[in-house]
Each structure stands twice: as C-alpha cells, then as structure tokens.
Amino acid sequence: MSSLQPQKSSLRRSVSALGAALLLLGCGYRPARFRAAPPLLVVADEQPIPRPDRSIFIPEFYEASVYVGRELTKALDPRHAVEALDVNAVDEVPASSWFRQAAFIDKPLLGYRRVGPPSLPWRVTSEVAASETPDAQVVIDARGTRYEVVPDDPKRPGMKSGASAAASRILYALGYHTAEVHVVTTPSGERFTATRWPSEEDLGPTAKSGVREDDPNDRFDHRDRRSLRGLKLAAAWLDLATLPPRVFRDVYVGRPNQGHVEHRLVGIDGALGVRHYEDDVAWLKDANRENSNFFLRVFSLGLSPKPAAFAPEPLLPGLGLYEPFVVAENFSLSPPFAPADRMRAGDAYWMAKRIASIPERVLGRAVLSSKLPPLSQHTLMQLLLLRRAQVVAWGYGLVSPLEPGLVSPPNPKTGALARLQFVDLAVASRMADRRLSSYQVRFLDGENRPIGPSVILTSSTAVVKVELPASSVLADYVVVAVTARRAGRALPFAVQLHLRRRQGALVLVGVQHD
C-alpha cells in the first residue's frame, strides 16, 4: 500500500489516532517527504465486521456539544486545524466508504439510479421513517420496495421535491454516497419526494467528530476528513444552510459478519433556497417574533413593536429563495458543523476543483430530475452556474491553484534541462487573466534548502513550464514550490511539487497545496 500524504505529529494527538495515521500515512515531518510510490487511490476500509448496534442520538447532548462544547474547545485549544487525514500523496481524497471515487470522472452520475422511482400504487405503512426526515412516511410500492415519501407544500408544488432530487444528484456527482431520490406525481396530481431508504440496515446518524468505536474500519476523527470539511463549500454552492444530524447516516452493507459500514447523505430537503423560504414563512407566522436590537428590547421593557415581516417571493413557481450571489467566505451552517469549522485552504481548493469538474450536461440532468416547469428549470440551471463560478473562484484564490503535469527528463543531445509542466486552473477556467499572472518558483532539496536561484515566470497560456536547475541532477529529492501571483500580489499558499529520483530520473511523488 502506498502512503497517504504525511502529516505533522502532535503531542496532543491520542496514541490510537496516531497509530492509525502512521498505519496509513507513514511518519511525517516538516519538510514533508514522499515515498517513490504510486498514490493511494482506494482505502481498504471495507473489511468485514460484525453488524454494529444502532447508534443512540440524544438531541440535548448534541446541542450542548455543538453550541457549548464547540466554543469551549475553540477557546482552550487555539491550534490551527491539522491537515486532513484522508488525503493521498497527490492531495486528493481516495475512494472509501465515505467517498465514492477519485476526482474528474467522466460519468459522475453512473450508478446513482439503482432501483428507480416507486411503482404506483403504493401502500402507506405505520413504520417510523428511518431517516427522521420531517413529514416523511414509509411506503411500499407495487414491486414491494420500500421508500420514504414526503409531500410537497400544496402552495409551492415542486419546490421541495425538485430541490431534493436535483441536490441529491449533484452531491452524488461530487463523489458522495447519497440515497436515490425521485419526484413522483400521483394520479390525483399530488407531488412527492420519494427516497429509496433504507436501502441497507440503517445504523443511525453519523457522528460529526471522533470515530465510531464499534467500527474498526473507522480510523480518523471525522472532523479531520477532507471529504466532510469540504462540504462547507458545496453547501454554499447549493445554499444548503443546514446539515442536521439526520442527514448523515451510517448503514451496514452486506451479509451479517461479512459486511461493512458505509456513510450516506439522506434527506437533502432544504437545498436550493428551500430552507430560506421555509424560514421566512415561519418568521412571518411567528406571533412572538422580537426585534433583533437588544437595547431596544431592554429599554422598551419588552414592549417594542414586533419587527416587520414580508411574505417571501421566489422568482418562479417551484423555486426556493435561491439567490444569484453567494459570499462563500461568509457562508455558515446552522447548527454548526464540526468538520466545516476545521476546513483549511487546501480542503476548500479540493472541493472547488470537484465542483468545477462537473460537466454542464450532468448539472442539466440533475435539474431535469426536478420535473419543474421548463422556465423554472432554465432559471435554476443559470443560478447553479452563476453560484458555482463564485464559490470556485473563491476556492481557487485560497491557494496557488496549480495542478502538475508531466516531468520531462533532460535531453543530453540538445542540452535541455529536466522540465516540469503544470496547469493554472484559474487561468484555464478564465477566472484569472493570464496577462496579469506570474509565478515565483523556488527550488529546494528534501531538507528545505535552496538548490538553485528562484525565478519569476509568465506564460501565454494556462500551461506553465518550469526548467529545473542544473544542480537538480545531483539531488535525489527536489521540491518545486510555486507561488501564483495576480497583478503582482502573491496568493496565500505555494503549491509544492515533490520530485524523487527513481531509476536515474526525477518523478513526481507528492503534491501539497497548503
């Protein structure tokens, strides 16, 4: 097994967590070094285990943890978040029970549709909805397949069901294990969100921190998984203002004692402005709403007039309050989401790459699944594209958004030195002007010592070529640190490309973005 990205050691890290990190990552130090081995693409966290017990969720304990314990922890432990632990040598998240596949696949929706929509008529059961989604009912369709169905608001037909179907497919395209969601219209004209759940044995909500003690495959603190940290940026794109505990579910996949735990996203019913619409309606109906001005409330002895409230007005039928503009930096989740609190620049950049990689045709298929009127579908598509550009641009601006390409060996006949190519994703996507972009390049050895003079490069395209210094032919380990500059201003982090000599030639063995 090749190593994952090396991590900083920490005296405060528990012995068990450190042992797990060493098992997968290898011992890391600064400056980081990478082995000359292919990057890990799949994490073997599907080893057979006995079926764990269903987790017990206590709302009061959860609220105390996220609102009180979180603040105490932040106050007593001022350390910056550690680097993500579920990352391989090339700064990507390998496939696992948490994440479906490596980045930039050609068919991101392949496998989403497993059983299809329910066949009518269905029979409503007395079972309690496993996903704990509000207003959900468990039904058995004409084939005998179980679904959870949620009716649309009669005053806003299509809004909740359309958003759930589209958001579920988009999150699946990003790489998450999501439940299959379909929009169903009954012969009477009533619209439902139909979710294929539970498809396996539901073990209850996934913990947002720590590990699942009865799952030996679960080795990293959930707060330190990039796949969860990066969800904050995806939530900003989809205007998913809340990620309540019920959304993340553990399921047991496989036969007893031969299966494993997989982590799913279920009940994404507040995306694309739906939650904002519902919150505004609730505020309008709240007879006890109070003015947000604390001093006004105090000095008026609680007799200050009730603040004005206005009926929300979405753009078109079936759409929520999905605004065209988003400030990703200021986006927050309520209740607080522990992994999002620890999102680093590299985590946001990784998610920005994944968001940008979804083809428009795939977004179009997700929007079509909403079964909204054509004009509403067209508007939703344009809003998705507009917000996507904003969150991706923000993510690309947190680091030097450079992806390595080929390493060309030196040519003794022509005297050409070894050369490295990389692609500036911001320039390639026209989010940055190549004419205003330059790149400061530093050449270091494995101990962070210079092995050649730094250079400033420009390029007429998004592809930038770097010639390694002549002294690199004597080095067994070379680090090329490249800082992108826009209009003369350096971006916050350099990308570090780690090269190691193998069979006489330097090969790329590692990448770090923050």
Describe the structure.
- With 514 residues, this protein is α+β, with helices and mostly antiparallel strands.
- It has 2 domains: 37-77 and 84-398, no CATH class; 402-512, Immunoglobulin-like (Sandwich), CATH 2.60.40.
- The protein is 25% helix and 20% strand.
- It contains 12 helices and 17 strands.
- The protein has helices at residues 15-25, 59-76, 159-174, 226-229, 231-238, 274-285, 294-299, 338-341, 345-357, 360-368, 374-396, 425-428, and strands spanning 123-124, 137-140, 146-151, 181-185, 191-195, 201-205, 248-253, 260-265, 402-408, 419-424, 437-445, 450-457, 463-467, 477-486, 489-490, 495-502, 505-512.
- Strands 11, 12, 14, 15, 16 and 17 form a 6-stranded antiparallel beta sheet that branches.
- A hairpin with a 6-residue loop joins strand 7 and strand 8 (260-265).
- Helix 5 (231-238) packs across helix 9 (345-357), helix 5 (231-238) runs antiparallel to helix 11 and helix 9 runs antiparallel to helix 11.
- Residues 1-30 have low confidence and may be disordered.
In short:
This protein is α+β, with helices and mostly antiparallel strands.
What distinguishing features does this structure have?
514 residues, Immunoglobulin-like, 2 domains, five-stranded antiparallel β-sheet, alpha+beta
What is the CA-atom radius of gyration, in angstroms?
A: 25 Å
Mind summarizing the main beta sheet?
6 strands, antiparallel
By secondary-structure content and strand pairing, the structural class works out as alpha+beta
Average pLDDT, all residues:
83
Strand proportion: 15-25%
The counted number of beta strands is: 17
Order of helices and strands: HHEEEHEEEHHEEHHHHHHEEHEEEEEEE
- Helix share bin: 10-25%
Report the principal-axis shape: globular
Distance between the termini: 25 Å
- Report the total helices: 12
Residue ranges: pLDDT <50 for 5 or more in a row?
1-30
Number of domains: 2
